[in-house]
Amino acid sequence: MKLSTWVQYSWNLKTLPAEAPKLAARYTVETASLDDRNLLQAAISRSLSMEPAWSDDLASRLKLTEEIINTALPAGEVAFVAVKHGARIIAAAAIRDSGDKVSNLPLGVCVLNEYRCRGLGTFILHDSLRRLKERGLDEARLVSKKGLTADRFLYPKFGGKRVELSSVPV
């Protein structure tokens, strides 16, 4: 069995740029509701399954996604930022403002493969960090798998500091 290597990113929210990245007019951003659960599940699952680096841990990540959407969202423990193109969710991130958690973005930033390289990941990361800052956090954290596209290109943005982990923290 291959052991996965994990990384944790942290952002100092005090230094988060105030100006948000631009979002094309054809997209809308909103806080997803309970009615959006199936759309969230479909978009996040599809995004994860199209990322080759998740192949070893896809089943466990999909299970975590389902738990967060079906348990933590209704309980109010997380909120979902969603970018929509029409009625379709094309990018999403779960945010958890509890300061004692290992990850304030427990599913990372998920963007459908066909919508990548359009600035959506950058937009939703900034928007998620901004929302956490508005909720009183000074620092935000995220645990991700080493080698993901987001690990290499997205999460270092806005001053993201990276530390390698030997195991996934609980």
Structural class: alpha+beta
CATH class bucket: Alpha Beta
Based on Cα principal axes, name the global outline: globular
| Discrete helix count | 4
Helical content stands at: 25-40%
pLDDT average, as an integer? 91
How much of the residues is beta strand, in percent? 15-25%
What CATH architecture label applies?
3-Layer(aba) Sandwich
Structure description:
This protein has four helices and seven strands, in the order E-E-H-H-E-E-E-H-E-H-E. Helix 1 packs antiparallel against helix 2. The chain is globular, with a radius of gyration of 15 Å. The model has no long low-confidence stretch (mean pLDDT about 90). By secondary structure, the chain is of the alpha+beta class. Strands 2-3-4-5 form a four-stranded antiparallel sheet. Strands 6-1-7 form a three-stranded antiparallel sheet. The protein is about 30% helix and about 25% strand. Strand 3 and strand 4 form a beta hairpin. It has one domain: Aminopeptidase.
Summarize the structure.
The protein has 170 residues and is of the alpha+beta class.
Which tags fit this structure?
3-stranded antiparallel beta sheet, 29% helix, 7 strands
